[in-house]
Design a protein that fits this description.
Belongs to the gamma-BBH/TMLD family. It holds the Pfam family TauD. By secondary structure, this protein is α+β, with helices and mostly antiparallel strands. It folds into two domains: about 110 residues, NE0471 N-terminal domain-like (2-Layer Sandwich), CATH 3.30.2020; about 270 residues, 4-Layer Sandwich (Double-stranded beta-helix). The protein contains eleven helices and 22 strands. Helix 8 crosses helix 9.
Length: about 400
């Protein structure tokens, strides 16, 4: 490990290293109030050299030349110089290549645990906070439509609310068909599916999708049959049924997964490991489709974090490609998941001009049944955003806010 101690006699430090030195460089940074040095593996510094031979500034991306003859076992620092006054790290490598790194660039990429954690939680993606049905009133936040259209700070707060808590309600939107499109365009662009871009949810005779019926709509995620499932659902209420029904149901399925993991670990394991066939067969606007995707109900990443919930009773295929002995245990685990999801659901009813927005990878949603007549119509206009587009916009807005301070 390269231990770099600041010299008392001047702002510059020079260091020569033996070839067998350990490949971690500690760079002192006077701006760090805790006095902790920045940490960088030497091979990472070589890979991220910012010179014109290694990096194309107009695309902000590295060039491939190094990787055409990369020998990971031989790359080492030969000579290192730190200019504390100009805040630049200079390195000469053992193959004669020279690199320089501004401290402002290095600080953002410091390998220290504190900096890595800060990046993941405050810039990569905000840390989700799970909630129970009884906590809904504490986490729920409302935004005004016109504020989101005209104010970037409000837009940033809406996207943050969606990322952290998975839902937000927008109020006082115009009773016009293109409201969802305007909101999506403020973020980036709308996600198109087999049902088009905007879609109308209202009772339809002979409907090909269960959501277009006036019957109770059980808790579900939208479109689990897509490998790349839409990330954020937007539902704009144009007309609301005056019947006793038509109430929205929302549950944080990540919280349900927490309960299963802590109290029912075997059922949690089954729902994270058993592949389920999800399917959608039909036609819409003269487009015929047969979509299938196989994925567990609860999806986790390599670190055990939840990344996606799949659930839709009508859109779970009758094909179930597992060993027969796995079937009954899965049904028992799934019945427990459904029961807990209903126990944790919060019920409310939107009004005309409300836009309900929520994380479709995380929340399960539904509604109670309602009476549909010519005098009693419920009309919802929906659309989707992808999380890649949401996070991109959020980061841009966050950087803009930081630059203005």
């Amino acid at each position: 490990m390269f231990q770099l101690q600041q010299q008392q006699h001047g702002p510059e430090e020079e260091h020569h290293f033996e070839q067998d030195s350990l490949p971690l460089i500690l760079v002192p940074d006077e701006s760090n109030q805790l006095g902790l040095p920045m940490q960088f593996p030497d091979i990472w510094l070589r890979d991220n050299c910012l010179c014109s031979e290694c990096y194309l500034h107009q695309t902000r991306s590295r060039l491939p030349q190094l990787w055409q003859h990369l020998d990971t076992k031989r790359i080492r620092v030969y000579h290192l110089n730190i200019d504390q006054k100009q805040e630049i790290l200079y390195i000469e490598w053992n193959d004669g290549h020279r690199s320089e790194y501004p401290f402002c660039w290095l600080r953002e990429r410091d390998f220290s645990l504190a900096n890595r954690s800060h990046y993941l939680q405050n810039f990569y993606r905000p840390e989700p906070r799970h909630w129970s049905g009884t906590e809904f009133a504490l986490i729920q936040k409302e935004f005004l439509y016109q504020d989101l259209i005209s104010n970037n700070d409000e837009l940033q707060q809406w996207l943050y609310q969606l990322a952290v808590y998975g839902m937000a309600l927008i109020k006082e939107a115009p009773l016009e068909f293109d409201v969802v499109r305007h909101l999506c365009n403020r973020v980036g662009f709308m996600r198109r599916t087999t049902y088009g871009e905007e879609f109308s949810v209202r009772a339809q005779p002979g409907a090909s999708n269960y959501a277009y019926l006036a019957a109770p709509l059980p808790l579900h995620t939208d479109m689990p049959y897509f490998e790349y499932k839409p990330g954020v659902t937007l539902l704009h209420t144009l007309e609301q049924s005056d019947s006793p029904g038509g109430w929205n149901l929302l549950t944080d399925a990540y919280h349900v997964a927490d309960i299963l993991k802590q109290q029912y670990p075997e059922q949690f394991r089954i729902l994270t490991e058993t592949l389920v066939d999800w399917a959608d067969i039909g036609n819409d606007n003269q487009l015929e489709f047969h979509n299938i995707w196989r994925s567990p109900v609860i999806n986790v990443d390599a670190d055990g974090r939840y990344v996606r919930i799949n659930h839709s009773i009508p859109q779970r295929d009758s094909h179930f490609n597992v060993h027969p002995e796995q079937v009954r245990p899965w049904y028992e685990a799934m019945a427990l998941f459904v029961r807990l999801a209903h126990e944790q659901a919060y019920e409310f009813k939107t009004k005309p001009g409300d836009v309900l927005t929520f994380n479709n990878l995380r929340l399960v949603h539904g509604r109670t049944g309602y009476a549909d007549t010519e005098q009693n119509v419920r009309h919802i206009v929906g659309g989707f955003l992808d999380w890649d587009i949401v996070y991109s916009r959020w980061r841009i807005l966050q950087r803009s806010q930081t630059a203005d301070k």
